[in-house]
Amino acid sequence: MKKILLACSSGMSTSLLVTKMEQHAASIGEEAKIWAVGQDQAKAEMANADVVLIGPQMSFLKKEFQTEADKYGIKVDVINMMAYGMADGKKAYEQALSLM
User: How does pLDDT run across 15-67, given as a tens digit for each residue?
Assistant: First the structure.
């Protein structure tokens, strides 16, 4: 099972993207746990993830988050802005997979 953590300012703006990503994973027969948290919870949740995607509005935190994620051997990236804006679950899911 793939475990994908999404982090945004409050954890709310990524909830639709989580749903779309889950739907895409199911449509291709993959099991995935995908969840969203606010930036204040993200570091604590990293231990449970295979990859972390952060909202474009938090791109300034990428380096700080990657430093934390290095403890768990996982990668952090900023969600593609087009995928984020259009809630493109397929594109965001594929971005996550490319980092694993």
Answer: 899 999 999 999 999 999 999 999 999 999 999 999 999 999 999 999 999 99
pTM for this one?
Answer: 0.94
Domains located in the chain, CATH noted: 2-48+61-99 (3.40.50.2300)
DSSP codes of every residue in 61-98: GHHHHHHHHGGGT-EEEEPPHHHHHTT-HHHHHHHHHH
Query: Which H helix or E strand runs over 22?
Result: helix 15-27
Q: Confirm if 7 and 38 have CB atoms less than 8 A apart.
A: yes
As to burial, measured by CB atoms within 10 angstroms (0-12 exposed, 13-18 middle, 19+ buried), residue 20 is buried
Q: Which residues are catalytic?
A: 8
Strand order across the beta sheet in which 2-8 lies: 32-38, 2-8, 51-54, 75-78
Give the residue among 9, 2, 95 at the shortest CA–CA distance from 53. Answer: 95
Distance of alpha carbon 2 from alpha carbon 10, whole angstroms = 23
